[in-house]
Amino acid sequence: MSIRRLLKAWLPTVFWAVIIFSFSSNTTPTTSQVYWQDFVVKKAAHLFVYAVLSVLIYRSLKLTTKFNKSYLLLFTIIITILYALTDEFHQSFTFGREPTVRDVIIDIVGGTAGLSAFLRLYLPQLPQRHARKKN
After folding, report:
1. Residue 78: its pLDDT value, please?
2. Which residues have a Cβ under 8 Å from the Cβ of 75 and sit 6 or more positions away?
3. pTM for the predicted model, two decimal places
């Protein structure tokens, strides 16, 4: 596989991971005076960025490996989980930030939900093996 093809496959994924890393490097000011609004906005952002990340990882693996669908899904989820864990670890070194298990779980849910939605909406539907029998 050529370097150009590898870059084309992985550059969007790496770019998105760098965006996540840069957000994790910043101290996040409160976006609202109301705690629950701030909480909802931040957790929704976690769900969104990890949903996109998992789809990009899936795409990159699909373009650069010969994994079957099961392995593609498995490795996509594993890489997403590992990135979520390292992102939270990274936050332990950032002033004003602290790692939380809750955020890792939200990241995993976002990644899994994003990948599921992508697979259901954008991949061609497989033909049904058995047609329903009419009574």
Report:
1. 98
2. 57, 61, 65, 67
3. 0.83
